[in-house]
Structures are given as C-alpha cells and as structure tokens.
C-alpha cells in the first residue's frame, strides 16, 4: 500500500463515534499513521463533508490535501464516458466517486 484516498463515508464514520463503523474507521486511521501510509484528502471529499460538518473537525494535520485539477477532470470524463449504464442509472449519485477514482488513477494511489 503506497497511499490511501479517504472518501466521505470514511470521514463521517471517523468523526462521529455514534456511527456503526466508527471503530473500524478509527482502527484504519491509526494503522495508516502507525505504518506511515500517506492519507490523501481530496478537495472533492472536503466539499461533501463540509455540507453537514466543518472540515476542521477532522485531524487535518495527518492528511495530505489533494486539489482536484485539470488532469483529474479529464481522467474523470474518460472514466464516465467509458462506463456502461444500467437502466435507471443515476450518475448524479456517483459523480463524486468517479472524481475520487480519477484522482487515484492520476496520482497512482493504491487504495480508497
């Protein structure tokens, strides 16, 4: 594992002790710190998290903020274009997930 991209559901679980997966998120977080695995925090995930909770509630000093840039946007467009659609497919729900995957692809991030 060379690095990990943090998604919004992980951030929510990490920050909220009442969430069902809080203990697992905390365990992964501590393991990444112990193993010195870089934890990347996309500006995409920051914008999603900020909708309900301030991003400053997170331990930002342990994350590397990754801006969403032109290369990421182009890779995202290609990913979406190349993904077949099922009947009733609602791309709006997963558009930010495509962006995170594109960032991982461009930055050679090994895990999400």
Strands, count: 3
Report the end-to-end length measured between terminal Cα atoms. 10 Å
Q: Please, how many helices?
A: 5
**Poorly predicted residue ranges:** none
Query: Rg to the nearest angstrom?
Result: 15 Å
The side-by-side strand order for the widest beta sheet comes to 1-2-3
| Cα shape | globular
List keywords for this structure.
single chain; 112 residues; mainly alpha; three-stranded parallel sheet; 3 strands
Can you give a write-up of this model?
By secondary structure, the protein is mainly alpha-helical. The protein is built from 5 helices and 3 strands, in the order βααβαβαα. It has a 3-stranded parallel β-sheet with strand order 1-2-3. It is globular and about 40 Å long. The relative contact order is 0.21. The mean pLDDT is 93.
């Amino acid at each position: 594992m060379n690095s990990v991209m943090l998604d919004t559901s992980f951030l929510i679980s990490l920050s909220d002790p009442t969430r069902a997966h809080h203990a697992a998120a905390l365990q992964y977080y501590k393991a990444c710190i112990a193993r010195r695995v870089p934890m990347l925090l996309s500006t995409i995930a920051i914008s999603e998290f900020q909708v309900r909770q301030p991003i400053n509630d997170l331990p930002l000093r342990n994350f590397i903020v990754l801006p969403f840039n032109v290369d990421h946007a182009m890779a995202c467009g290609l990913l979406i274009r190349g993904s077949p659609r099922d009947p009733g497919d609602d791309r709006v729900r997963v558009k930010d997930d495509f962006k995170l995957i594109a960032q991982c692809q461009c930055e050679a991030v090994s895990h999400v």
